[in-house]
Design brief:
five-stranded parallel β-sheet; globular; 5 helices; 18% strand; alpha/beta; 45% helix; Rossmann fold; 130 residues
Length: 130
């Protein structure tokens, strides 16, 4: 049985493979969207338990995709973690203003990622269904 379903919205395959590996090793089921536009569509269609979002991507950036996901009643309650190389305080504020629930910078600490995912998955279990 899966510990939860996680949508990873990430255009860098090396980052995706690392995140996928560590999450699947810990019992999570993962699936990929390679840009913000596909990520928004996957969130609506797949209804994941949690989303990990890169912020710099082609076609639609993560800030815009986050606003669309959080602005849609079907997906607004899904916990969303920004995973980004944007490390400035203004980038962090912009991510939270867009609707991110958490913010992790690259290069990531894998234990921090797992702890953060676990925290939001537990918290997300009590979210109301849309």
């Amino acid at each position: 049985m899966s510990a939860g379903r996680i949508l990873i919205i990430e255009d860098n395959m090396d980052t995706y493979e690392l995140v996928r590996f560590i999450l699947e090793k810990n019992g999570y089921e993962t699936f990929l969207a390679m840009n913000g536009r596909d990520g928004v569509n996957a969130a609506v269609k797949q209804k994941p338990d949690l989303i990990i979002m890169d912020l710099s991507m082609p076609e639609m950036d993560g800030w815009t995709a986050t606003r669309l996901i959080k602005g849609n009643v079907q997906t607004s309650s899904i916990p969303l973690i920004a995973l980004t190389a944007h490390a400035l305080p203004s980038d962090r504020k912009r991510a939270f203003d867009a609707g991110c629930d958490e913010y992790i910078t690259k290069p990531m600490d894998l234990l921090e990622l797992l702890d953060t995912v676990s925290h939001w998955m537990r918290k997300g279990l009590t979210r109301p269904e849309a």
